[in-house]
Each structure stands twice: as C-alpha cells, then as structure tokens.
C-alpha cells in the first residue's frame, strides 16, 4: 500500500543521495571460495567480502568496480557495480540439466555458476558428458552465464574418464602422435659410412628396463681393469636422426614436450614407429647412438670422459626383475655372457653412491605406490620400493648427465640445463627459524649457497629426522629448465643437464641436436629461446599434474564406498588449516581439517619446529606419526578425501 507514496519516495531519494555521496568505489579482482561467497582483492591491497548473491553476478577472475558498503558492526561488503574485464576463454565442466535446460557445471569448484547452453548452441551433448566449453555470456548482463561446447571429451560413466579428463585439463593429447613418412630424413634408416663414427656393434651392450618397456633410450656396458678402474660406456639412442627440425613430427613433439605416463597408460612424445621401433635400442638391432664413455677410480670419481657418435647393437634386453634376481644370487637369471658387466655395474653403483654422498646429495632410495591397471580397470594398488637394479641404472644415468652438462658448459654449447634453486628466497628466513628450533644453526645467506644448503641437508640426514625432511620440502622451489649452467641444489651439484631420454623428453632431444652439431661440426644454428624454456617448464608441470590427478581420481572412487571406515595413515604434512595424511595400505592422500578437530573458538597453529599441529597450545598431530583415521567424506568430482582422527585415538 506504500507503493508510489510521495513521502516515502522523497525519503528514499534522500537516502540514496546520501549513500551515493559517501560510498567508496574500488577496483580489483574477484576471488571465489568453495562455500559460494568470495572476496574482492582490490588494487590497493585491501580485501573485501563478497556475498553469495553478489558472487552470482560475477565470476572468479573478473575484474570489477564495486562500492564498499560499511555495516554497523564495522564489517565491509563489496557491491558489484560493473565488470571492467570479464572472465573469458574455455573451461572444463560436466553437462547437467536444470529443468529442460542443458547447462555446463565447471569442475573449478570456486565457480558456482551453471553455464546455460543456448538453444542454437545445443547439439549432441548428454547428461554427464565432460566437455571443454567456451564462455559466451556473462551473468552480470542478464543474470545467466552462458557457454558453447567446444569439444566433448568423454562421459563421466566411461571407464577411461579419469584419464581423458586429466589430459583435457592440461591440454595433453590423449592419442599417440601420427607417423608421417615425409617427415623422416632420407638417410635415417641406414648407417652413414663415416670413418669418424665409432663401430661398437660387437661391444656387449645390454638394456635394463621394465619387462614390457619398448621405448628404450639407453644401453650400458662396463668393464673393470686390473688397476681397479671401471670404464662405463652409456649408449643413448640417436632419436634426433629421425626428425627433421621444423617438421610436423618435430613441432608435435615440441608441443607435447614429454611422453606422459599415467597409471596403465603411456602416451609417447614421438610416433610409436620411432619411439618403440626405429630409434629404440631393441635387442639384436643395429642402432645409431651418442656414447658417453667414463673412467671411474676406486672412490667413484670420474677421471676421464668423452662423447662420440657411432653404431651399436643391444646384445640383450634385461629387465629390472631379472637383474635384481641375479644380484640376489640367482646366477641363471641372466646369460653368463653378461655376468661380468652386471657385477661391474653393481660395484660402480656402490662407488658412485659413496662419491655422491661425499660430494653431492643422494636420497636413500624412493618408495611409491603404483596402480596395476588393465584396460582402464584398477586391479590392485600397492607400495613399490626402489630396487638395487633400478638404483644401478640411475647412478649410470646421473653420472652421464653430470658429464654431459659439464662438457656443454666447458665448450659453451647451446644446452637445456636442469636447475634447482633450493629454498624459495621469500621463505628462507622462516626456514632458518624452523631449523633453529630443530638444533640446526644457519642463515638465509648460507642456505642460498650450494655448500651451505648441502651442509644443512647432511645434518638433517645425520639426525635421521624424517619429520624435518618433510618440513623442509615445503620450503623448496620447483626444479626448472635454463639455458645457463648453474646449481642443482636438490642433488647437490654445481650444474646438471640431461641427454639420456631423447625419445621421451624434448629437452633431451634439443641437447642431442646441439651435441651432434658440435661433434660432426655441422655448423647448424641451435637456438634455445626463453619461450622454449618456459614451454618445457609448463609441459613438465602439466604432465606431473595430470598423473597426480588420475591417481587422486582413482583413489576417490576407491574410497567413496568406504565412508565411515577406519584406516591406518601416516601424517605427511601439518599446517594451520589441518593435516595431510597418506593411507598406509594404498598411498591415497587425505586431509584432516581443523573443523573436525575442535570448535570455532579453538586456536590452531603449527609448532615453532614445524613438526606439530597445535590446538590451544597443546600438541595434537605430529609429522611422521601413524594414526587411525575415519573416512569422513569423499569428493569424487574434486578428487579429494576428507578424514577425521579415529575418536578412539
């Protein structure tokens, strides 16, 4: 009955004028939360609350103008006035129907909007289809977010959905590259008659790899001399001879960056006719290779090394399992023709391990969990530990790569180096304090040097402190590619470059081109741009993240029917918001939120030594401890497992 009341209209007009004259306008970027509300991160550094109704008018990532409403209790709220730069581009989501309208629900849980597919843009989409969609309408315009489907990846019910969606998420081709005969150099299939090339076909090289591996990059041969010297020759497949620079095959390999290895699925960087046949060091087949020959003294130090080109032939395809059996005393596990070489390689592994412990940094061996997958169906999952036979191959490859990096640097040759900067610069002071509380004295300046970093890591190793190792990992930078020779902190070396996997890594393929160009004095220009380095870093990150996403998706499906069940788990991380755990039986990652550990008024923080989650000043959960956890909730779309400590704990 008050509609159009003159007095009320006059009062409202006066109020609006007052608000308009007093309101503050800010610009910034919208950030979302899984709970539906958001925040406006203003350009002046301030952060303002955005309510769910206001969030429905915008998208996380939008740049907006907003008025800041100050409430009576002193809190502020951002009211969206306009979109200055709307979120655009493609996203991944799942088709769902809202009534008769097909929509795409983004898998990004910070975006709560459902994107409607306009009538003219609808085609063959089905409910549950996982799709790549393009934003074509912003919700600020008419309250409805709109999109069009660019590609249907798969359906969520498909047995390979976890694999296909992970590849789509990181723009990884799901299929192997197609072989194009026109891309292959004319002289690639036959050895060039060049007297400068070494003919090592009679040398009894062997390959040691997985039983079913076909893309074989490397072969080994070792001999021990009477004076104790060990000579190791590492043969690396000359995959580069099959690829014309700038060809479709070359550009596709560059785009992929790396072969992708997912549970039960490998997607090669090169066409299989190259990676598993023509370039692969298959048993009994003549192949071209780059040879790295190294002499080691009794202390495991390289006293001489050389790089040459030539031909070779693998005399046997050995598996990690057969070599491990032989080293364990089963003499007939491999042919007697290779006994001396394998025993010598084993002795070299010991020498080299001791050298790295003294002069560099070496891990005690890895353990990991692996899914056994057949035709995208999980058969089992369990822990695998690094075997002596795997360690043997690793030491040979690391030695060859160290010498390669040193050679390329000495001769000022174009090279893609591997770098690791140690502790993140912005976190160094924080880590110094954590180390101090663990009885290790250092400074940020010392941590920033290779020798200072190695000294700290050796002290941690001496203490045998697994929790402290876990803490330090959280302060570490990511490894990266670089065109400059420089320190690789995590393995304790002044410089490092890889060339041992040219079939699987484009960075190694580049390094092969540069080394061959130098050895044969071809005079070709090998240019490695900053854009190339950035691309390689991104593709390496993408393949790692895709593998992690598939694992997490499989774990989520595995534990979804086990909600309420109790499992033993190991604490692998503590932070203010909770604790990360790893299921002991399967390796699945879970998270214990502080919301399950107390009331809103409780104060949670991490102890000064970084080891323990504290509740109101009392130790609650400690790194490295084993505890029983209850599966509380499994978010299958989000690929996450939420846990709570067993109440009986």
UniProtKB/TrEMBL annotation:
UniProt domain RNB: residue ranges: 197-521
Any one GO biological process: mRNA catabolic process
GO molecular function per UniProt: exoribonuclease II activity; RNA binding
Keyword Metal-binding: no
Chief location category: cytoplasm
Known catalytic reactions: Exonucleolytic cleavage in the 3'- to 5'-direction to yield nucleoside 5'-phosphates
InterPro entries per UniProt: CSD, CSD2, NA-bd_OB-fold, RNase_B_OB_dom, RNase_II/R, RNase_II/R_CS, RNase_II/RNase_R, RNR_Ribonuclease
EC number: 3.1.13.1
Cellular compartments annotated: Cytoplasm
Broad enzyme group: hydrolase
SMART domains: CSP, RNB
Domain Cold-shock: 27-84
Keywords tagged on the record: Cytoplasm, Exonuclease, Hydrolase, Nuclease, RNA-binding
GO CC term, one of those recorded: cytosol
Pfam families: CSD2, OB_RNB, RNB
This protein's name: exoribonuclease II
Organism: Pseudomonas putida (Arthrobacter siderocapsulatus)
